């Protein structure tokens, strides 16, 4: 395992939903910010990677376990470490804890390095990842196998790809995909159920374009909602969310 890095974070009003729980998209955003700050302390910031290799980091998969959602004004600790890497993939974990040390959220993530000009995945450069001290392995972690979505899957809404959706790498911020998916679900459902496990796979970059719209489709299979973020017939991302009914204690 690699070098661990941690920081505290107070859940802000703008990160909280109508139930006072931290939004999933903000959990992902804070996780990415935490890994970015570790990279900066190791002299491997996004700017350094770009200036020296014309590359940037991109997440291609998340596995998220939600034991208890952080709440508004709660002070939490986020721990992260690069766990291993191989020729093309780097693996990193994030652990969110409350002030007593109880685990609230665990995120396992898979990353790649992409060329800024060609937008193609490139081999992992040892010089870039060496300071994290994660072991180099030959094994590729087997990705989650997503449920098939039928041709009758619903598409309730279409969303524009806005300039404000883009991050510094020029593509849609990866937390935005989750919001597109769950915005298909109605208010009563969201007030009654909350996610317990989430899988996200990014298949293709979504870039900005005038009058560009994505059309997410979804269907339920038991207590799992299966989502595809689709544009012009291309499946840009797959998302699966396992839901649990909210208890009165929550």
TrEMBL record:
Acyl-ACP thioesterase N-terminal hotdog domain sequence ranges: 3-132
Domain of life according to the entry: Bacteria
Lineage: Bacteria, Bacillati, Bacillota, Bacilli, Lactobacillales
One Pfam family here: Acyl-ACP_TE_C
Family under the similarity heading: Belongs to the acyl-ACP thioesterase family.
Chain coiled-coil ranges: none
Keywords annotated in UniProt: Fatty acid biosynthesis, Fatty acid metabolism, Hydrolase, Lipid biosynthesis, Lipid metabolism, Transit peptide
InterPro entries for the chain: Acyl-ACP_TE_C (IPR049427), Acyl-ACP_thioesterase_NHD (IPR002864), FATA/B (IPR045023), HotDog_dom_sf (IPR029069)
Record domain Acyl-ACP thioesterase-like C-terminal: where: 152-245
Protein name per its UniProtKB record: Acyl-[acyl-carrier-protein] thioesterase
């Amino acid at each position: 395992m690699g070098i661990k890095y941690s920081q505290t974070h107070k859940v802000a009003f703008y990160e909280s939903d109508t139930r006072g729980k931290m939004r999933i998209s903000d959990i992902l955003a804070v996780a990415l910010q935490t890994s970015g700050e570790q990279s900066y302390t190791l002299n491997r910031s996004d700017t350094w990677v770009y200036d020296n290799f014309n590359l940037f980091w991109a997440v291609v998969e998340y596995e998220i376990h939600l034991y208890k959602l952080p709440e508004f004004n709660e002070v939490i600790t986020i721990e992260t470490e690069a766990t291993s890497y191989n020729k093309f993939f780097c693996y990193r974990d994030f652990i969110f804890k409350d002030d007593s040390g109880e685990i609230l959220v665990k995120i396992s993530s898979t990353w790649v390095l992409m060329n800024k000009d060609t937008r193609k995945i490139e081999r992992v450069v040892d010089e870039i990842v060496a300071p994290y001290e994660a072991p180099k392995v030959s094994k590729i972690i087997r990705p989650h196998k997503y449920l098939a979505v039928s041709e009758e899957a619903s598409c309730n809404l279409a969303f524009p790809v806005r300039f404000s959706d883009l991050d510094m790498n020029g593509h849609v911020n990866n937390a935005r995909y989750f919001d597109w998916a769950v915005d298909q679900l109605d208010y009563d459902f969201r007030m009654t159920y909350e996610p317990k496990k989430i899988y996200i796979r990014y298949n293709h970059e979504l870039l900005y374009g005038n009058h560009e719209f994505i059309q997410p489709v979804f269907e339920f299979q038991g207590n799992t909602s299966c989502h595809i973020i689709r544009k012009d017939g291309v499946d840009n991302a797959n998302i699966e969310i396992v839901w649990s009914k909210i208890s009165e204690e929550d």
